Every structure is written in structure tokens, then in C-alpha cells.
């Protein structure tokens, strides 16, 4: 049975001398795996549509196991994203995070749209660091990890000065800081952005301008939160950390 899907390549694995196994995240079927026979050959008609991050329409033979890719039509290659090592590294982290937090054939059109919009905005030159933080916040729900950002996680207070508590899973007001002595002090703008990222629709994204110190706080909080609750150890994350260190030197 032939099946046509709209999808994005989120992982490629070499198989034999000439073949690739593609992991596609699709609008219609969620995450699927297909064999692209001959895709490693430069002249193969499947070569260009089998590259990481490629967005396209794919036709494959659907079986009980791994599908077999018959043909594909590229919609977008995200060429600018591929041309910059930092953008490529951040995009690789985004697709690996998605891959590790999703199961085969779990249909989620919202998540597909989130992935597409994130890669599209990065390719257009929007702030890739902030887009990555937004993606991480959105993926917390997919991972089943709660995040209390609408007030104090302990007493429920909605106003005042907040810190962030890994232990309590969200904000603590100044009256409840004693609940977690290791709470992370954050700027009001950081709290505001975390709340915004958790609730807003990425399609409504306008221009992004965030101070470096706010970016660093967001990164510190989300890294610590994922480390504590997700159990993930991503190769792309280690590489990204190395690149960020190089950028700072």
C-alpha cells in the first residue's frame, strides 16, 4: 500500500554501501521510518530528499515494519540553516530532542507544525538561541514534565518577585524561597518569557530581542530542568555545548 505524507527528515542512518534509513516526522502519521534505497549515491533521485532537515512530500510503500521510500518532492531544504555550523548544531539538537521524546506513529499535527516553524524561523535568521529555548519549553509537555509558570508553585501567589525552583517545578515567590534553598534567582524578564513561551503560539512570533543575560538565565534553567527530569543524554547537546564554549572564547 502506497502512502503519501508531508514530513521532515529528523534522522538519517547509513545502511550498507548505498542505502539510508530515514526517520521522518510527518503531519499525517507522526514519526515513521523508511528505507531509501540507493540514497547515498550522488545521482540517486532520492539523494536530495534524504538529507537531514529536508522538508518534503514523501511517497513510500507502507508495511508492518520499515517502509520503503518510492519517491519524494522537496518543499524546502533549509539551505541557510545548513550553511552555518551554529545553526546546523542547534537544529540538530532540536530534531534529536523531538526524536527522543516521541514514539513511532503517534500522530501530533501541532508538534509537526512546531518543528516546521522552528526550523523555518531559524533558516530565516531569527534568534536561534531563543527559538531553541521556546522549543524546549514546548517539549516539556511532550515529555510529561510539568512546569508551573502562572504563579508560585508552593502558595499560588500570582504577583511579586519570583525565583525558579527545579525541586518545585516552577516559580517560587519571595515568601516561599525557603521551601527550596537551591532556588535560582531570576530577573523579572526571564520569568515573563518563560510564562510566554509556555503558553503562546509560535505562529504569532514577531521580532525577537532578548538581552544576553536573560538568554543565559533561560538556558541555565532549562538545562537544569531537563537534566533533572528527562533522563536524556543527547549527542547533539554535547556538541552544542562545545560550540558555545568556542563562541565565548
Automatic annotation (TrEMBL):
Domain DNA replication/recombination mediator RecO N-terminal: 1-78
GO cellular component terms, A-Z: bacterial nucleoid
SUPFAM superfamilies: ArfGap/RecO-like zinc finger, Nucleic acid-binding proteins
InterPro entries on file: ARFGAP/RecO, DNA_rep/recomb_RecO_N, NA-bd_OB-fold, RecO, RecO_C
GO biological process entries: DNA recombination; double-strand break repair
Keyword set, alphabetical order: DNA damage, DNA recombination, DNA repair
Job of this protein: Involved in DNA repair and RecF pathway recombination.
NCBIfam families: reco
Family (UniProt): Belongs to the RecO family.
Protein name: DNA repair protein RecO
Originating species: Anaerobacillus alkaliphilus
